Amino acid sequence: MSEIATNIAVKLIQRESVTPEDGGCQNYIESLLAPLGFVRTSVDEGGITNSIYSRPGELKGTLAYAGHTDVVPTGPLEQWPHPPFSGLIEDGMLHGRGAQDMKAGIACWIAAVAELCGEYTPLPTIQLLITSDEEGDSIDGTIRIVEQMQENGTLPDAVIVGEPSSFKHVGDTIRRGRRGVVQIKATFHGKQGHSAYPQDADNAIHHATPALANIASIDWGEAADGFPATSCQITNVNGGTGATNVIPGFCEALIDIRYNPANNFNSIKNAIETACADCDVTLEFDHSATAFSTPDGTFLDLVCDSIKTITGIDTLRDTGGGTSDGRFLAAAGVPVVELGLTNSTIHQVGECVAVSELAMLTKIYTNIIETMRF
Ligand SMILES: [Zn+2]
């Protein structure tokens, strides 16, 4: 079983697929899944390869697995101990770009499904939602898959996102939510002039500073729901010409907010607007990621029970890290858990993963699929 996952992982790594290229990975995945009864629906958009592979189940309900075939660039090739697209195995380690993030994870899910189909185990409907645009802008990736499923009424009942969630051992950590991100550009307006003639000018920095002080002192509330407290950081302030005797006509500030699910975009927007209410200011908001949180309950318990059964580990239900494609599925109302390999070398030169991890993750995925009931 572990050999199947390893072989698939090697073949995926050997298909060069730096974002947004898929490099033939998804055609290869289709060749593996079609004999198991999966039908592929392509949702390609804007040069991105997106696929929904679906196998109708004997049991009710739909369990999905979400992942990506694209990888980040290699960086300097001469620094790699083995060529990044070789998929070379040495001393129990599988080397190559995508080994942890996240081609080997996809391979484990496919191996788990293949094993269960081979045993004629009754299964829920299984979907694989695979994009080649996760490491890039994610504009035409998983979000397009979700839109298509919303239109067709085929959204799953739960989804495992296969990102490398684990730290030291497979299954020691899952992600049950992620913070949201709001980024703001604030441009404070005034009127430029000579510092000796302030009556003819209007100092934009003098408007900006009290407003920024208001922003820095907004009370966003406490840590909530397993998340740290919302963080609001003023990260850049620029104003003035460089000359001491020129009153600045404008001042720009950049603000980065990482919010927990106790806050939301509208409450954040209102708070920032209120803090700047006394200013002539232009505020540009970019809500680049929505916070999500899968509540404690059956789905999380089942995933953690499977990990415990296979590994004996008690799993940390984490909410850390940046963003992931889980946010698009969560926004559509699908419970999301991220569970994958360890992440010690992701995006690094010399990315690699222990082959033994693939065996472990395949067993965990198999147990989850076997025990999942809707
Ligand atoms: Zn990834």
UniProtKB/TrEMBL annotation:
<protein>
    <recommendedName>
        <fullName>Succinyl-diaminopimelate desuccinylase</fullName>
        <ecNumber>3.5.1.18</ecNumber>
    </recommendedName>
</protein>
<dbReference type="InterPro" id="IPR011650">
    <property type="entry name" value="Peptidase_M20_dimer"/>
</dbReference>
<dbReference type="Pfam" id="PF07687">
    <property type="entry name" value="M20_dimer"/>
</dbReference>
<keyword id="KW-0378">Hydrolase</keyword>
<dbReference type="GO" id="GO:0008777">
    <property type="term" value="F:acetylornithine deacetylase activity"/>
</dbReference>
<comment type="pathway">
    <text>Amino-acid biosynthesis; L-lysine biosynthesis via DAP pathway; LL-2,6-diaminopimelate from (S)-tetrahydrodipicolinate (succinylase route): step 3/3.</text>
</comment>
<dbReference type="GO" id="GO:0019877">
    <property type="term" value="P:diaminopimelate biosynthetic process"/>
</dbReference>
<comment type="subunit">
    <text>Homodimer.</text>
</comment>
<dbReference type="GO" id="GO:0006526">
    <property type="term" value="P:L-arginine biosynthetic process"/>
</dbReference>
<keyword id="KW-0170">Cobalt</keyword>
<dbReference type="GO" id="GO:0009014">
    <property type="term" value="F:succinyl-diaminopimelate desuccinylase activity"/>
</dbReference>
<dbReference type="GO" id="GO:0046872">
    <property type="term" value="F:metal ion binding"/>
</dbReference>
<dbReference type="InterPro" id="IPR050072">
    <property type="entry name" value="Peptidase_M20A"/>
</dbReference>
<dbReference type="Pfam" id="PF01546">
    <property type="entry name" value="Peptidase_M20"/>
</dbReference>
<dbReference type="GO" id="GO:0009089">
    <property type="term" value="P:lysine biosynthetic process via diaminopimelate"/>
</dbReference>
<dbReference type="InterPro" id="IPR002933">
    <property type="entry name" value="Peptidase_M20"/>
</dbReference>
<dbReference type="InterPro" id="IPR036264">
    <property type="entry name" value="Bact_exopeptidase_dim_dom"/>
</dbReference>
<keyword id="KW-0479">Metal-binding</keyword>
<dbReference type="InterPro" id="IPR001261">
    <property type="entry name" value="ArgE/DapE_CS"/>
</dbReference>
<feature type="domain" description="Peptidase M20 dimerisation">
    <location>
        <begin position="177"/>
        <end position="277"/>
    </location>
</feature>
<keyword id="KW-0028">Amino-acid biosynthesis</keyword>
<keyword id="KW-0862">Zinc</keyword>
<comment type="similarity">
    <text>Belongs to the peptidase M20A family. DapE subfamily.</text>
</comment>
<keyword id="KW-0220">Diaminopimelate biosynthesis</keyword>
<keyword id="KW-0457">Lysine biosynthesis</keyword>
<dbReference type="InterPro" id="IPR005941">
    <property type="entry name" value="DapE_proteobac"/>
</dbReference>
